[in-house]
């Protein structure tokens, strides 16, 4: 078997074209969606992601403003910036790039963002809504994964989805979304004993760990759909968590890195920003 390679870049582009029309319709009503991104510290990968987000906003006609703050910024200063953005009429979405330096409490920062502007879906109120099945901003990467599966007509209902990774930004919210779509969900993590026993059972296997080639062909059931969220840098090149060249001969569908989940994450951020503007301006 040779897997279909899922073209996340193409699917993200199609979503962005739809959003572009929505932004134009909002402009006719004198509304321009606005996104604020707060980036603390000098991590080159974070700076590169944030540039991607800025460029994406620009191409759609979304206003964006990036706050680049030094790693030494105090929690109080960061909270002050967030409070100003909560009040700003130009800004509908606020994203604080994670991780934050260790002297800043991530949960205090995320709690300070107005839930109505929380386009990452990380505020506790929105996390609770997601778990409860109430409408809310869906976290971008998990939502992007669901969109990829749906676009490729990969069934979710009744299927066994196995997620490797249990972070608050990917693994856990993705489990909640897959459950909402009636998958049977298993979550694995670093203390899982004999990981392969679990991954081998997956109809849909999602890797969200951050470890190069940790999913090998022997861990994948023949015909599974394999979604690679991982981003690893090797000599300046990006590679995922899945051994792509091996696993593509076992899976029925597979996402590449780059060009898989990453572009979808950005598309869903734009989607949430447009949604926020529609809700706040209506
Ligand atoms: N494409 C995209 O849009 C995005 C990509 N990413 C990428 O996805 C990856 C995961 O990100 P994130 O969730 O933030 O990462 P975290 O580091 O927060 O979480 C990693 C998870 O992997 C688990 N883990 C670590 N080692 C193993 C192992 N040997 N076996 C099984 N599980 C293991 C950890 O377990 P434990 O909980 O026990 O420590 C943890 O739950 C990273 O490469 C990141 O760069 C992230 C966000 C968006
Ligand atoms: N508050 C917060 N929200 C996030 O959504 C968030 C975050 N913090 N911290 C870091 C992770 C990581 N992340 C990515 C987004 C896009 C790509 C992406 O566009 N990747 C491209 C390649 C981009 C490149 O070439 O650098 C691809 O996979 O094709 C990757 C990773 C969002 N994250
Ligand atoms: Mg990708």
From TrEMBL:
Tetrahydrofolate dehydrogenase/cyclohydrolase NAD(P)-binding domain location: 139-279
Keyword tRNA processing annotated: no
Subunit structure: Homodimer.
PROSITE patterns for the chain: THF_DHG_CYH_1 (PS00766), THF_DHG_CYH_2 (PS00767)
Annotated positions binding NADP(+): 165-167, 231
Protein EC: 1.5.1.5, 3.5.4.9
Function: Catalyzes the oxidation of 5,10-methylenetetrahydrofolate to 5,10-methenyltetrahydrofolate and then the hydrolysis of 5,10-methenyltetrahydrofolate to 10-formyltetrahydrofolate.
Origin: domain of life: Bacteria
Keywords assigned by UniProt, alphabetized: Amino-acid biosynthesis, Histidine biosynthesis, Hydrolase, Methionine biosynthesis, Multifunctional enzyme, NADP, One-carbon metabolism, Oxidoreductase, Purine biosynthesis
Listed name of the protein: Bifunctional protein FolD
First and last residue of the signal peptide: none
A Pfam match: THF_DHG_CYH
Pathway(s) this gene product operates in, as recorded in its UniProt entry: One-carbon metabolism; tetrahydrofolate interconversion
Keyword Hydrolase applies: yes
Gene Ontology molecular function terms on file: methenyltetrahydrofolate cyclohydrolase activity; methylenetetrahydrofolate dehydrogenase (NADP+) activity
């Amino acid at each position: 078997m040779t897997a279909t390679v899922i073209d996340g870049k193409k699917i993200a582009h199609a979503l962005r074209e739809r959003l572009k029309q929505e932004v134009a319709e909002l402009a006719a009503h004198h509304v321009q969606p606005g996104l604020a991104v707060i980036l603390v510290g000098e991590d080159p990968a974070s700076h590169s992601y944030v540039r991607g987000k800025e460029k994406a906003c620009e191409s759609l006609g979304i206003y964006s403003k990036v706050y680049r703050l030094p790693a030494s910024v105090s929690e109080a200063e960061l909270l002050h910036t967030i409070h100003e953005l909560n009040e700003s009429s130009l800004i509908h979405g606020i994203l604080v790039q994670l991780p934050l330096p260790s002297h800043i409490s991530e949960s205090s920062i995320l709690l300070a963002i107005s839930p109505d502007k929380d386009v990452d879906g990380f505020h506790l109120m929105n996390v609770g809504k997601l778990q409860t099945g109430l409408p809310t901003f869906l976290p971008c990467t998990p939502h992007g994964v669901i969109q990829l599966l749906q676009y490729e007509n990969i069934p979710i209902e009744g299927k066994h989805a196995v997620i490797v990774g249990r972070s608050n930004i990917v693994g856990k919210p993705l489990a909640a979304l897959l459950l909402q779509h009636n998958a049977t969900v298993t979550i694995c993590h670093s203390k899982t004993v004999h990981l392969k026993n679990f991954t081998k059972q997956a109809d849909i296997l999602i890797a969200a760990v951050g470890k190069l080639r940790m999913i090998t062909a022997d861990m994948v059931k023949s015909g599974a759909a394999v979604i690679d969220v991982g981003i690893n840098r090797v000599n300046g090149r990006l590679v995922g968590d899945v051994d792509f060249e091996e696993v593509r001969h076992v899976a029925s569908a597979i996402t590449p890195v780059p060009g898989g989940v990453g572009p979808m994450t950005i598309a869903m951020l734009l989607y949430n920003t447009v949604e926020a503007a529609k809700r706040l301006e209506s």
